[in-house]
Amino acid sequence: MHTQSIEPWLHEHTFGQDTPKAGERRTLIVIVVTAVTMAAEIAAGLLFGSMALLADGLHMGSHASALTISAFAYYYTRRHAADPRFSFGAGKVNSLAAFASAVLLVTFALVMAWESTKRFISPVHIQFNQAILVAVLGLIVNGICMLILGGHGGKHDHAHEHDHHHEHDRHEHPHPAEHARARFEHEDHNLWSAYLHVLADALTSVLAIFALAAGKYLGQGWLDPFMGVVGAALVTRWSWGLIGASSRVLLDMQAPDALDHNIREAIESEADNRVSDLHVWSVGPGIYAAEIAVVTSDPQNPDHYSELIPHNLGLVHITVEVHRCDTVK
Asked: For residue 39, which phi and psi values (nearest 5 degrees)?
């Protein structure tokens, strides 16, 4: 009996997740910038007796902690990309960290809303000059951090390499997911969460500057707590969007309809083929796995149906199941 090694069909499921991403480097730089600013503000607050500086320094520290979650997720994903305990690699750690970070951001927003509500009930004396200085400083630092993160809200970095060549892998060509970016807005949820934390800080600074200027020059002190409530509402709304997006990945919800449509259309481009079952889910930032059941009157090797699917859809793992049916409708 002739035997053949199954070596050609063995493969790992790293899908490029074992290489450093641009988002990881950007997040680390932002953590350093935030930590240095935090230390400077806390030191100045203690030295000059400024509660405004001290409070903003502690606020910076809370966001530095949240950003550290993002940095750790990048590291953990890279380190465990080839861990066989993860069925399709560790890419979902990205979304798990984003979910946790978004929940933390909502918590910050609720605290902000609570503090603002208390100040409506019991107004406090505001040292406008110091407070405006701190807000401007915070806005500058957060502006720099937003530029470092790319200013794009966390769109997925497709800079990883693919070198898999087997019937379940769609990366026979280099960087196939790169072409999908224009058609499907794949997102690095982890980078998105880091960006939202910085954006939330920047928004808080902008609203604070407006409210403090109105309080100092127009006597409208009520605007300070009011803007706190407005900022909390906006941050909560952004965070809720991230919670929803990361939850869809964590719960293996079906991929975007456009992606499903393209796969189904490609398979059924041959008259005798019908897709009876299709499951497509995210296994990492901008990359997907698919299980496809094909009913046809002229069964072919599973490779044949895989080859019908465009190489630019971000599919990294495809399993095809073929069923024969004499008459396909």
From this structure: -60, -40
**Separation of CA 52 from chain center:** 32
- Residue 290 is predicted with a pLDDT of 93
Nearest to 94 by CA among 108, 80, 82: 80
User: Pick from 202, 166, 201, 187: which is nearest to 21 by CA?
Assistant: 187
Mind listing the pLDDT tens digit for each residue in 80-125?
877 788 877 788 898 899 899 889 888 888 887 888 888 778 877 7
- For residue 123, the number of C-alpha atoms closer than 13 Å in the C-beta half-sphere is 10
pLDDT of amino acid 87: 78
**Helix ranges, the chain (H):** 22-48, 51-79, 92-121, 128-149, 189-218, 223-250, 257-267, 302-308
pLDDT of residue 329: 62
* 28-314-271 Cα angle (round to 5): 170
Question: Which domain, by its residues, includes 186?
Answer: 13-250
- The two tokens of residue 86 are 């993860």
Q: In terms of Cα–Cα distance, which of 314, 329, 323, 279 is closest to 15?
A: 314
Ranges of the chain with pLDDT below 70? 1-15, 45, 48-56, 58, 151-187, 327-329
CATH number of residue 139's parent domain: 1.20.1510.10
Domain end, chosen from 230, 250, 270, is at 250
In CATH, what number is assigned to the domain containing residue 319?
3.30.70.1350
